[in-house]
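Appendix B. Chain record.
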Amino acid sequence: MSEPAKRTTSLLNWEQAPSARLCHPQEDHFIPLMAAELFGVKVLGRLMGVVLTADGVAEATFPMLIGYSRDKSGSYRLGFVILIAIALLGALAVSRLSKVPAASDGL
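Structure tokens predicted for this chain:
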């Protein structure tokens, strides 16, 4: 099995490692590893800068926007519909990403 294939297999089967869930109770701990596997380590710094900035902006603004929506409408329905729509758009975007050949990374 090639080295990139071993990395992919190990990443997909991470829960089989000893104490995996104890050390990493949430899958979001693996975002940098998944990003490196998908895009390569050469762009990982820039990519994580974009991901973490977008995450920080969303965490800072969306609770306030959802609260404002709730105050105006008296219900969380619209806010949660918007969040679900954004999550579905994100899932669609991620599903359409193409994998960069890992061999070009020099790992």
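Further analysis of this model is presented in Appendix C.
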